Amino acid sequence: METKITGTTMPVLEITLAGGEQIIAEGGDVAWLTPGFDIQTSTGFGSGGKGGFLSGLKRMIGGGQLFLTQYTASGAGGFVAFAAQLPGTIRELAIDPADQFMVQSGSYMASTPQVEVSVGMQTKLGAGIFGGAGVVFQKLAGQGVAWVQLAGEIVEYELQAGQSLLIHPGHLALYRAEMQMEFATIKGVKNKFFGDSLFLAQLHGPGHVWLQSMTPAKLAAAIEPYLPDKSSSSSSNDN
């Protein structure tokens, strides 16, 4: 198996497989591929070999798809490509019992068959905060390689034991699974999203953390003024 990440603002992950090699991904995320792949979809894929509907259900709770797709290369081999959905970067992660990660929901792209993709943490922050949906992170465990897409520019920190960092949850892209996290309320900050209090994630070392400069919510807010007014379109159609 060989991988290549190309591009800058909107990168593409290209995975070249030898005959019989397999890759798991969310089905709708494939961008292009060579002919000849055996393609199957199941709730058991992405379970790290554990299989079963329950594994898929846990993954869906974590913001992923209930069904994942397995691509198996033919005898001649081939490649499959996945394009980033937001401006940013694609990172490759080596997964084993000593190296497990928590990634923001929606960031998982693909993995080798023995990687387990499940819900790692789900926290409600109340109505009005992130639309009442709260914060969800998926856990990448098992054994193998996974690829994740992170939004915007990436800033990394290595926290030592006793150190902690307060982070807006939307900017917390990826962190090592053994790190402890809690939510803190910061008084005195007023804005249109949080009112009188700012909710931040407090991540405790030791461990490594990847922060993203862009959040999907901020990107959506930036382009919203340029989108067609649906109510106006509906009124025009009615006349």
Compact overview of the structure:
This protein has 239 residues and is mainly β.
Query: How many helix segments?
Result: 3
Q: What is the CATH C-level name?
A: Alpha Beta
| CATH homologous superfamily grouping | Mitochondrial biogenesis AIM24
Unreliable stretches: 125-133
- Quick one: how many beta strands? 19
- Distance N to C terminus: 58 Å
Annotated CATH topology: Double-stranded beta-helix
Q: What string gives the helices and strands in order? A: EEEEEHEEEEEEEEEEEEEEHH
Structure, described:
- There is one protein chain.
- This protein has helices at 53-61, 216-223, 230-238; strands at residues 2-6, 12-17, 22-25, 30-33, 38-42, 68-72, 78-83, 88-95, 101-104, 108-111, 115-123, 135-142, 144-151, 154-159, 164-167, 172-176, 180-191, 195-204, 207-212.
- By secondary structure, the chain is mostly beta strands.
- The protein has one domain: Mitochondrial biogenesis AIM24 (Double-stranded beta-helix).
- The chain is globular and about 60 Å long.
- The model is unreliable at 125-133 (pLDDT under 50).
